[in-house]
Amino acid sequence: MAKIPDYVTVRETAAGRRYEVRIEVGGADGKRRQQRRRFRTLQAAKDAYAEGRGDRSRGTQVSPTELTLRQAIDSYLDALHVRPTTLTGYVCSLRPAVAVLGDRPVQSLRREDFEKLVRDLQAGGVPSTEWRKPLKLRASVQAESGAWKATTIRPMLARLRKVFERLLQDGTVPRNVVALVTPPPAEKFEHQTLTVEQVQTLFRSLETDRLEHLHHLALQLGLRRGELAGLRWENVHLEGAAPHVHIDATRLHTEAGAQEGPPKTEESIRDVPIPSTLLPVLKRARKRSREEQLAAGTEWVGVGHVIHNEFGAAYYPTSLREFWARALRDAKLPHVRLHDARHTCGTLMHLNGVPTAVIAKLLGHTDPAFTQRTYAHSQDDAVTAAMATYAKVLGAKPKPARKSRRKV
């Protein structure tokens, strides 16, 4: 039987034998106090005692607090200065952690708690919660969430690491336990894009559509949905030697409705040249807009948006996604997301020899390496054509050797 150290007291309780240790902790007034803790095993008691002594020697002792994980997350989110859509994404990713561990004090949470949360999310059936859900959506809250993939679990862990990083800086916890959790491996995801032939088919089917310019702007300039929704005619320069579109605003969905503001990054503010294939489309759209304004008369409510309804009102950003899906159905093309029009633009430019750095500048990316990873993947038909070219090279008959004409 292992020897019981002097600092461990054996207690016989109704639940069985427990091993008790007194651990020094820092008080809110700066004075040291002792905290009694009981453990099921002798080794766990010894480990806790050693951990407390180590924290004391390193000067990392923390004052006891009942701050819960939910309170810590709320404090972290309230201190952020991000766009409403970004904040909504953070809230959605953190909701399972709040549902399962939100009432636990942060000082009681261990790595194993978050590892179990990850396993439960992968299996599905984690309880849901109304935490920070808009009032109009609370009626749709389900009792349990479905299974989560690595692509959604990894952002949750990233946010939780930030929460505990803040707690560590404040001296509330002695270590960032979430940083010890190994995230599930990232799943390989390939964006779906349209081929040149499919793009041409879509354009032909849109020749009489009043919103043809929406789809041309998405595919030819690679604009984001918010950039499409927020674009105004004052930033579309159709005349002169260098027609271009100036991107400096975005229109996004929020809980309070659609809101306009600056782009997310400085690189997103950019001038994009208008290609010759897009110029006549935009001229038709501007003419159509002026005709609709005359027809609407006093009912015109427009303030200069490029993409608007018959009375000039800008469409809600999510409506653009519906228009895109309908256009693909009408053209009998496979469904891809509206954002995949942006992927199509970047991919086709890459396949036609445009340098990655140039693509990054046109699309408003901060890091050209991100452009390479995200958009510069090859389509199946391009891969097939490349292998066919390679086969021709290998199958070509060798040229006969030239005879030497040496004088005797």
TrEMBL record:
Start and end residues of each Core-binding (CB) domain: 67-168
Record SUPFAM superfamilies: DNA breaking-rejoining enzymes
InterPro entries reported for this sequence: CB, DNA_brk_join_enz, Integrase-like_cat_sf, Integrase_catalytic, Integrase_recombinase_N, Tyrosine_recombinase_XerCD
Basic and acidic residues biased stretches: 48-58
Renumbered residue ranges of the record's region Disordered: 45-64
CDD domains noted in UniProt: INT_ICEBs1_C_like (cd01189)
Cited Pfam families: Phage_integrase (PF00589)
Domain called Tyr recombinase: residue spans: 189-388
Domain of life: Bacteria
Keywords (A to Z) from UniProt: DNA recombination, DNA-binding
Protein name (Swiss-Prot/TrEMBL): Site-specific integrase
Species this protein is from: Tsukamurella soli
Lineage: Bacteria, Bacillati, Actinomycetota, Actinomycetes, Mycobacteriales
